[in-house]
Amino acid sequence: MKILIVEDEEALVELMSAALKKEGFVVETASDYHTAVSKLAVYAYDCVLLDIMLPGGSGLDLLRKLKADGDRTNVIITSAKGSLDDKVTGLGLGADDYLAKPFHMAELVARIRSVVRRSSNAGNLAFVCGNVSLEPDTGAVSVAGVPVQLLKKEFDILKYFMQRPGNIVDKAVLAEAVWGDHVDQADDFQFVYAQVKNLRKKLDAAGSDMEIKSVYGFGYKFVTKN
């Protein structure tokens, strides 16, 4: 799961980043309005943690822009401004949740998981494609009801595919989504190929009726086996 923290308070950013990375999230940050706009234009995120008061602009203006552009990224407002008007305005503009500062990191993690689960999986606890089931909260994966043990990156890759069954996924987009935007510093995508190869082997060995199919010149797609 990939998170963008839009916050200018450096100490808080460090605390939030550490807590989220400990939970296995890929975390990126933006300390001002314009950096946030630039990142959201280039990268895809599962959730944006958005402060209202930002250098260069308002978090509420950023939220307005996202919704006007048709962007369906989950947004949780995290602001010290605790007035009812701010909360009502934010939720009215399309924010998925509102968390007033100060907050406990455990609550932040729980709110993120809840928002993402509701939006991407219609409130269900597991993603299901064919006979493959993945539970994002617990990290459990099973094929035909039998547990399958995956490494962290294998799990993240499978979850990304299961959120987009049948869609072509560019290898560069997959790498960026799972490893973060610093992946563009890599010389090649051999690390992606290796992880996908291992994931394929584990799914095949477990009797999956789904497969990660290579699409020449583009990347992959997660489809039912022929």
From TrEMBL:
<feature type="modified residue" description="4-aspartylphosphate">
    <location>
        <position position="51"/>
    </location>
</feature>
<dbReference type="GO" id="GO:0006355">
    <property type="term" value="P:regulation of DNA-templated transcription"/>
</dbReference>
<feature type="domain" description="Response regulatory">
    <location>
        <begin position="2"/>
        <end position="116"/>
    </location>
</feature>
<dbReference type="InterPro" id="IPR039420">
    <property type="entry name" value="WalR-like"/>
</dbReference>
<dbReference type="Pfam" id="PF00486">
    <property type="entry name" value="Trans_reg_C"/>
</dbReference>
<dbReference type="GO" id="GO:0000156">
    <property type="term" value="F:phosphorelay response regulator activity"/>
</dbReference>
<dbReference type="GO" id="GO:0000976">
    <property type="term" value="F:transcription cis-regulatory region binding"/>
</dbReference>
<keyword id="KW-0804">Transcription</keyword>
<feature type="domain" description="OmpR/PhoB-type">
    <location>
        <begin position="124"/>
        <end position="224"/>
    </location>
</feature>
<keyword id="KW-0902">Two-component regulatory system</keyword>
<feature type="DNA-binding region" description="OmpR/PhoB-type">
    <location>
        <begin position="124"/>
        <end position="224"/>
    </location>
</feature>
<dbReference type="InterPro" id="IPR011006">
    <property type="entry name" value="CheY-like_superfamily"/>
</dbReference>
<dbReference type="Pfam" id="PF00072">
    <property type="entry name" value="Response_reg"/>
</dbReference>
<protein>
    <submittedName>
        <fullName>Response regulator transcription factor</fullName>
    </submittedName>
</protein>
<dbReference type="InterPro" id="IPR036388">
    <property type="entry name" value="WH-like_DNA-bd_sf"/>
</dbReference>
<keyword id="KW-0597">Phosphoprotein</keyword>
<dbReference type="InterPro" id="IPR001789">
    <property type="entry name" value="Sig_transdc_resp-reg_receiver"/>
</dbReference>
<keyword id="KW-0805">Transcription regulation</keyword>
<dbReference type="GO" id="GO:0005829">
    <property type="term" value="C:cytosol"/>
</dbReference>
<keyword id="KW-0238">DNA-binding</keyword>
<dbReference type="InterPro" id="IPR001867">
    <property type="entry name" value="OmpR/PhoB-type_DNA-bd"/>
</dbReference>
<dbReference type="GO" id="GO:0032993">
    <property type="term" value="C:protein-DNA complex"/>
</dbReference>
